[in-house]
């Protein structure tokens, strides 16, 4: 507590406007403090020992050195699906529950994924560039395959991947997935064929990534895996940037084996504008924006606040990521 009120500490370098959160917390009698990276050194001793709940925005590091100073904290919530910037082990040692908001943008990310698939396979970036250059040559970007003739491989089959599969069915594509922990009935329900990881790579014309950035998944797609894919295949990533070894992806595209990549996430965000991968005509990038919509952001902010309110009150959380009683 600080000044006789429960303190909610928001750590955020991404969003400027926190008026929605402030209204919700003030209605519940909480005090709110927002800290950005440039003010962390000054704010740390002022707020870390007194924060009852901490909100961590995507990309903001909440590691052991910070968590060790959270002497009053009962709950940390990632204001996102991803939570890889939070040190779960250290939070568990401190007895702090960690949670996140896993389902607020399933609709948006699945839409964004399919938009990326169509954008890159229909060669929109190349067409757009040539029209801006004063050309009008619809034949100069061939080969373009009929979309329904593709095999779309989904690496992972959680809620977003399932929604992608559901939305892709009317397109007539073949759908396969590698998701070894998912029950068989899920594949049956979505008419998706479960295959091994190697077969996913070999059979997919379009490979779409839908797994979290856990240590075992980091750089899961490297040069070896890319070379296992059919020549002329595409890769789509709307999950996490660290899943793909970007130098290997550049090499596979440069050699002509991979026809293109459509990415919403990168290892470094924002990236260096001189990054050679970004300057390839075969690569299309959006700025980690798959989750964005007015509706999704409203849901995210409300659920984030509810996580904090419930956590401070000692109520059960919708999902706890670490084993704290």
User: How would a textbook summarize the main sheet?
Assistant: 7 strands, parallel
Q: Round the mean pLDDT to the nearest integer and report it.
A: 95
- The helix content, as a percent range, equals 25-40%
Portion of residues in beta strands equals 15-25%
Provide the number of structural domains.
2
**CATH superfamily name of the largest domain?**
NAD(P)-binding Rossmann-like Domain
Structural summary, described in words:
The protein is elongated and about 70 Å long. Helix 5 crosses helix 7. Helix 11 links the parallel strand 10 and strand 11. The model has no long low-confidence stretch (mean pLDDT 95). With 325 residues, it is α/β, with parallel strands linked by helices. The protein folds into two domains: 118 residues, Rossmann fold (3-Layer(aba) Sandwich); 180 residues, Rossmann fold, CATH 3.40.50. The strands form two sheets. It has a seven-stranded parallel β-sheet, sandwiched between helices. A five-stranded parallel β-sheet has the order 2-1-3-4-5, sandwiched between helices.
């Amino acid at each position: 507590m600080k000044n006789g009120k429960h303190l909610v500490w928001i750590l955020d370098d991404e969003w400027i406007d926190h008026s929605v959160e402030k209204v919700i917390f003030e209605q519940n009698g909480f005090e709110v403090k927002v800290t950005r990276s440039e003010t962390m050194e000054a704010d740390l001793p002022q707020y870390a020992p007194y924060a009852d709940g901490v909100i961590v925005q995507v990309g903001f590091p909440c590691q052991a050195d910070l968590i060790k100073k959270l002497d009053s904290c009962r709950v940390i919530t990632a204001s996102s699906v991803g939570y890889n910037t939070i040190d779960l082990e250290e939070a568990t040692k401190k007895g702090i529950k960690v949670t996140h908001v896993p389902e607020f943008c399933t609709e948006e990310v699945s839409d964004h994924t399919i938009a990326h698939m169509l954008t890159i396979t229909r060669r929109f970036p190349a067409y757009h560039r040539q029209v801006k250059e004063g050309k009008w040559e619809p034949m100069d970007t061939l080969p373009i395959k009929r979309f329904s003739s593709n095999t779309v491989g989904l690496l992972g089959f959680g809620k977003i991947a399932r929604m992608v599969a559901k939305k892709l069915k009317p397109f007539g594509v073949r759908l396969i997935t590698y998701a070894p922990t998912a029950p068989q009935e899920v594949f049956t329900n979505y008419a998706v064929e479960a295959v091994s990881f190697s077969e996913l790579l070999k059979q997919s014309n379009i490979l779409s990534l839908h797994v979290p950035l856990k240590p075992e998944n980091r750089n899961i797609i490297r040069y070896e895996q890319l070379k296992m894919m059919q020549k002329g295949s595409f890769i789509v990533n709307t999950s996490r940037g660290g899943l793909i070894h970007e130098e290997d992806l550049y090499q596979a595209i440069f050699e002509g084996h991979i026809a293109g990549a459509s990415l919403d996430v990168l290892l470094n965000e924002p990236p260096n504008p001189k990054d050679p991968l970004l300057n390839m005509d075969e690569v299309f990038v959006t700025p980690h924006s798959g989750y964005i919509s007015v509706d999704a952001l409203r849901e995210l902010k409300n659920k984030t606040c509810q996580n904090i309110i419930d956590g401070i009150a000692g109520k059960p959380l919708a999902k706890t990521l670490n084993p704290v009683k």
